[in-house]
Amino acid sequence: MKTLREISTAIRRRETPFYAFLYRLAKGISSLSMPTIRPVHAFLYRERLTRLSLWHNFWRIVYYEPLFKSQCVRVGRGFTMHYAGNGTATVFGDLQIYLGDNVTMFDNTGLAGLKVFDKPELHVGDNTYLGPLVRIMVGKKITIGSHCLITSRIVTDNPGHSMRDTMRRITASGGLPAEEDIRPVHIGDFCFLPLDTVVYPGVRVGDGVVARIGTHISRDVPPFCHVAGNPMRIVRKVDIPEQIREMVGDERYEAYLQAHANLDEEL
Q1: pLDDT of 16-63, one tens digit each?
Q2: What is the DSSP string of 167-215?
Q3: What does the domain layout of the chain look like in residue ranges?
Q4: In 3D, which of 117, 123, 124 has the Cα closest to residue 182?
Q5: What CATH number labels 72-266?
Q6: pLDDT, tens digit, for every residue of 224-239?
């Protein structure tokens, strides 16, 4: 007697007229489709979205957000963690997390603090959005400003492993970078770093910088510039809104204008 696997193979091969009939029958069943009753199915679609939203928001409010907040030093007002399927953001190591007001992030965000320095710090400013699958690895200190949109693949102040000492990478130290390999990162206010951007150790990204998808920011960037590529290049200047003056003050606003003037020769 044939096993189920052998029968399944015989049907797929249509070895006999009977098996060919079973094959056509199975194909017919698999292609069945129920007619759409637009008002009914449109209502059911919205009902499903509403039900899932209520369910996810219930667990976000009473469980997942409190879990994450318990791992932070400070969380400002209006914090929101959006649902992407993982429950809550993951925090590795003794990372000191300081979040401003109205910070938004996703539950599949990964934040890691290394053991090279005691209590590495991550600071995120007010009204900043950390998109899905952002990875931030902190050896000493990373600062992200206010009013930013960050969906970078990784933001790091360290190379992850020693770049100079082969033996350090393969011995009991666990391959951690040396202290001199760790250089703090600063991302200014009003920045937009989209999908697959990478921010390298020691970089200072000026206020208002906009990057193209996939940009590797491996050197300092003046304020209000559009950058792209790997290696990174400055593509053009970004307009500086007059309304920003009220937010940052005259001195800082004039510094933006001076930085743009200095860029004229480079561009």
Answers
A1: 888 888 888 888 888 888 899 999 999 999 999 999 999 999 999 999
A2: HHHHSTTTTPPPGGG---EEE-TT-EE-TT-EE-TT-EEPTT-EE-TT-
A3: 72-266
A4: 117
A5: 2.160.10.10
A6: 999 999 999 999 999 9
